[in-house]
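Example complex used in Figure S2.
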Amino acid sequence: MEALSLSAEEEDTETLSSGPALPALSWQRTALLIAAGGAVGGVLRELITLAMPTISTPTLIELPRGTLLVNVLGCVGLGLLTGLLEKRPDLPRWMRPLLGIGLLEGFTIYSGLVLEGSAMIGAGFPALAFMYGAITAFGAVFGVVLGIGLASLIHRRTVRRRPRRTGSVAATGGVSVMGADTPAEVEPHRTLSSSTPSETPEEER
Amino acid sequence: MTVLLAILALLAVGVGCGLGAVARWGIHEGFSKLVSSRGSSSILVEVVPWPTVIANVLACFVLGIVVTRIGAEPTGSLRYLFLLLGAGLCGGMSTLAGAARDVVQLARRGTPVLAVGYLLVTVAVGMGALWVGVLVTQGTGATGGA
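Predicted assembly (351 residues):
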């Protein structure tokens, strides 16, 4: 019994030290997953950018289609992943660090957008820069909304096709929400539904 | 030979982007720890997804330094350094999808004004950070290329 309680305590401290984001995975493993996902995302982005070259000289600047495509695609993907993880808390723990934080968030590029926008302004096309920024912002937000919508559509279809399995899934999800008086049970759920890190202090007090 | 060089370029982007993604996650974790240790309860700390903002601003700042030091379109071996640091590290650290997801989550939680404000601030502050990076590097007189 003593050994059991000790191990439970150890688990608790581990959860705290790895931060509220990922209680189930060690931080080393999480970092490796993120690095792998980020590397793949970066290479994919570079390939797309290379495949869709655009002219940007001081007198003629094209809309950077490659970056735009990368960003909108990545946003649809992240919306899809976020929606799926919200609906299905039973999905494996490695999915968020590898596919979300690593692959998709590394795939999309905000600094490139800013650099291209600045280059447009520097070359004397502030209107084009503004248009590019507005298109990207709209596309990104719309992409995330589209992704989340797609996720709920997929979820509904799987529920209809396999009523037994997803039914039990929904039940466990409901339990973890309803048993909100035990913080350990709430934590994974909160993690998946992302992302106010500052909820922790209130529960600790 | 050209194939090898292309693979080297992709490798540079991949390594940089992996490092950048881990750095972004580190910022997120560090910020979460800081907030929970200080026990702050201000609404601006609670609701606004600061880690993404910090990562994006930092990435743009670093990109400003990189662009000033080695130029936006360098040739030769400097090109791989730019791919490693610019497209890789800064590209991996900054994230548009994360910012867009934050905006949508803010709107879903019933704070659409904050969501729109966050979107505008993200665009404006990123550009500002890039220029600060450029100016800081130029100010120290360390301009190397282009």
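Chain A touches chain B through 65 residues (CB under 8 Å). The two ends of chain A are 28 Å apart (CA to CA).
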